[in-house]
Amino acid sequence: MRPALLDPLFAPLTTLPGIGPKMVRPFGRLLGRENPRVIDLLFHMPSGLIDRRARPTIFEAEPETDVTLEVRVDGHSAPPPGRRAPHRTFVSDASGDLTVVHFNIERARIERLLPVGETRWLCGRVTLYDGMRQMTHPDRILDAAGLAKLPPVEPKYPLTEGLAGGHVRRAMEAALARVPELPEAIPPELLERGDWPSFREALKRIHQPETPVDGLPTGRAWERLAFDELYAHQVTLALVRQTQVKAGGRPTRGDGRLAAAILKALPFRLTSAQEEALAAIRADLAADTRMLRLLQGDVGSGKTVVALLAAAAAIEAGRQAALMAPTEILARQHLETIAPLAAAAGIEVAVLTGREKGRTRAGILEGLASGRIGLVVGTHALIQDDVAFADLALAIVDEQHRFGVEQRLTFSRKGAAVDMLLMTATPIPRTLVLTLFGDMDSSELREKPPGRKPVDTRSVSLERLDEVVGALGRQLRDGAQAYWICPLVEESDTSDLAAATERAAHLKKVFGEKAVELVHGRMSGADKDAAMARFASGEARILVATTVVEVGVNVPNATLMVIEHAERFGLAQLHQLRGRVGRGEKASTCLLLFRGPLSETSKARLAILRESEDGFRIAEEDLRLRGEGDVLGTKQSGLPGFKVARMEVHGALVSQARDAAARLVPGNPDLEGPEGERVRTLLYVQERDAAVRLLSAG
Ligand code: ADP
Ligand code: MG
């Protein structure tokens, strides 16, 4: 049970003064949670800072950055009545002059704000205009009393529609007042070495910084919270590993008989990358330790076949294998690939998803319990309580990042000393494998099966949308199908994001009602599946979607991928999406629609995508570019789960966290005593409840 001390953190945001029910939606959108809680807000980190302490002179003020200038007001130049020219105010300090520009402002008002001969403080951005320094519409014009009331350093936050910086800052102030002083979970020597503040103090420094460095990822406060997150993660990994080691392993040694039959039925030869991965998996299975291996490979790199051959080894040994995918569609697609091959080898395969009910389901459960079914492919339905295996040897998880630690654990408990194979189509740079998974072995399918046609990738300005729709029309006439990806679901007045709903309506007008299907994240699973199925069967020709198609649906006839607002996606995500095409005989195209002007980093990112189809290289470049200061959240890069830690900044803390966890867990496997208690509290704060449950489960 979560300690009562933490209750204020996990209370709904609406328990804060000033946050009414109307604010739930915008805050929910901002924080990525339907019913946001106080803790979600506290972990909403600033994207930058406004520093009012450094007071450059007019001459020193860096153009295009937020500054606060102390100036003397020299005079005004109002436009002649009736003209739409701006009002100009001339100000200066010892270093130079600046023109303050206001459009549509009453003369009397501006002369009151900036009285000639007086000293005033201007907050805003200096720009150079024809070699002259000017500030257009300062954020604030203050006198000495006003300046004294303003915090010297103020965080800026990522915002969303319906929320202004002021809303977030006020809510944050109320949230900070609720933060309890927590028992210190970080070992004292680390705390000292890092010179880190307490949890409570760290949050306060980040959200109400007194110096600029307080609010930055490189500051001690942020570092401390990043360490909390990384430490909780590493302790969780250590606990999971310990549970598995405790359970020991069982050697599973196949004789190669079924694998040979499958290979004979395959219309192709394995690539050497596949051969290598398979050899490593077979060796793991045969060893008397438990396997925990990551199989990484781009979409289409041939992971499914490797998974099947691994399963064959388990079945040859008289045991069973199971493959769990995150969606019904994916599970059925795996089955389609697997079923004919398994049949050729005489392996009995079943599928188990939410759709199998009643007698069908009972039959499958009986087959699994008796051992008749050698391989089962399914969804979460596989880990329900009443699913029991005669002797499960190998659990395979596809798109592993879509499952929580707890689900993977439940899966691994469906047998004695189950070996785990985790598959992912989002390649993770080696340096991050350690961070995310701890000590896990990894196999990479870098080499693509032969005969793959490269996807012709181009970036196109959104201004040329009509041409794109024209090109789409030509493709459809040739019998092809297309994906059209949009980043958000609903068009709003203030946001210029292309909305999937509006785009679908537009395309329906052009190509007909039945030609277009729409899928987005707010649809029910069944509706989504039905829409995708109509596209997969060819009934619909265009699938307009938010990023839900990211998972590995396979429609070989789809040869065109259009991604709107490509500049808003992470590189890895774009690469994943592109992997939906280029799966059939015909040449494929990927159009990255962007809204200009693009920043240098955005240009570089799109260029990498045009140049390369190697997911590993793309992931590495993505990490490098982010390290060079593009502030993209981990969410966008497709890496799961870290709210505070930034790999490009806090990478060095990972090994410290890992070492600390390695010192703690073996000596105190059940997290008992005062230190154990403190770490448990940390695990709850970091929402690693699953890890705590491991303890009580023993
Ligand atoms: P992944 O699961 O990694 O996305 P799949 O296993 O679904 O990829 O493989 C994609 C396609 O490539 C499938 O149609 C599969 O039959 C085919 N394939 C797999 N391995 C090879 C190979 N060595 N040579 C040719 N085609 C292959
Ligand atoms: Mg796959």
From TrEMBL:
Membrane-spanning ranges: none
Helicase ATP-binding domain boundaries: 284-445
Nucleotide-binding listed as a keyword: yes
InterPro entries: ATP-dep_DNA_helicase_RecG (IPR004609), DEAD/DEAH_box_helicase_dom (IPR011545), Helicase_ATP-bd (IPR014001), Helicase_C-like (IPR001650), NA-bd_OB-fold (IPR012340), P-loop_NTPase (IPR027417), RecG/Mfd (IPR047112), RecG_dom3_C (IPR045562)
SMART domains given in the database record: DEXDc, HELICc
Record carries keyword Kinase: no
Keyword annotations of the record: ATP-binding, DNA damage, DNA recombination, DNA repair, DNA-binding, Helicase, Hydrolase, Isomerase, Nucleotide-binding
Database matches in SUPFAM superfamilies: Nucleic acid-binding proteins, P-loop containing nucleoside triphosphate hydrolases
GO MF annotations in UniProt: 3'-5' DNA helicase activity; ATP binding; ATP hydrolysis activity; DNA binding
EC code: 5.6.2.4
GO biological process: DNA recombination; DNA repair
EC primary class: isomerase
Catalysed conversion reaction: ATP + H2O = ADP + phosphate + H(+); Couples ATP hydrolysis with the unwinding of duplex DNA by translocating in the 3'-5' direction
Domain Helicase C-terminal: residue ranges: 464-624
Described purpose of this protein according to its UniProt entry: Plays a critical role in recombination and DNA repair. Helps process Holliday junction intermediates to mature products by catalyzing branch migration. Has replication fork regression activity, unwinds stalled or blocked replication forks to make a HJ that can be resolved. Has a DNA unwinding activity characteristic of a DNA helicase with 3'-5' polarity.
UniProt similarity note: Belongs to the helicase family. RecG subfamily.
NCBIfam families attached to this UniProt entry: PRK10917.1-2, PRK10917.2-2, recG
Protein name: ATP-dependent DNA helicase RecG
Source taxonomy: Bacteria, Pseudomonadati, Pseudomonadota, Alphaproteobacteria, Hyphomicrobiales
